[in-house]
Amino acid sequence: QVQLVESGGGLVQAGGSLRLSCAASERTFSRYAMGWFRQAPGKEREFVASISWDGGIAYYADSVKGRFTITSDYLQMNSLKPEDTAVYYCAASRLRLGVPGPSSGEYAYWGQGTQVTVSS
């Protein structure tokens, strides 16, 4: 069982940046594809970005494309907007071919989330 812990959340002004990290309890975590999701108050969890296990392919939601960058180690968030305010979750997928998509069912392990608040 892989345990994931997010860090790096916080309060930032609109236009600012944050970097979220996802630490894993397992040494072989680098063999997993990763994804990030978020959930704002009163809304369903939504896909943010994902990356293949080897870091070669990344996939982004339209709402964050050009502003967020996902690597195998972190999610860099630039030009943040108030609508980016949410709890952000990292997730790990066992997918070995291609990049996992926006369906939460493709991910086997989840972190507890970290709060990101963007003030206007």
What is the alpha-carbon Rg in Å?
13 Å
* Regions with little confidence, pLDDT below 50 for 5+ residues: none
Strand runs, count: 11
> What is the overall silhouette?
globular
- The share of residues in extended strands comes to over 45%
* Mean pLDDT over all positions: 93
Helix content: under 10%
Order of helices and strands, N to C? Answer: EEEEEEEEEEE
The helix tally amounts to: 0
Tell me the structural class: mainly beta
Measured distance between first and last alpha carbons: 40 Å
- Report the sheet with the most strands, covering strand number, pairing sense and barrel closure: 7 strands, mixed
Keywords:
four-stranded antiparallel β-sheet, globular, seven-stranded mixed β-sheet, single chain, mainly beta, 120 residues
Write a structural description:
- The chain has no helices and 11 strands.
- It is mainly β.
- The protein has strands at 4-7, 10-13, 18-24, 33-39, 46-51, 58-60, 68-70, 74-77, 86-93, 109-110, 114-119.
- The chain is globular, with a radius of gyration of 13 Å.
- Strand 4 (33-39) and strand 5 form a beta hairpin.
- The strands form 2 sheets. Strands 2, 4, 5, 6, 9, 10 and 11 form a 7-stranded mixed β-sheet that branches. It has a 4-stranded antiparallel β-sheet with strand order 1-3-8-7, with no helix packed on it.
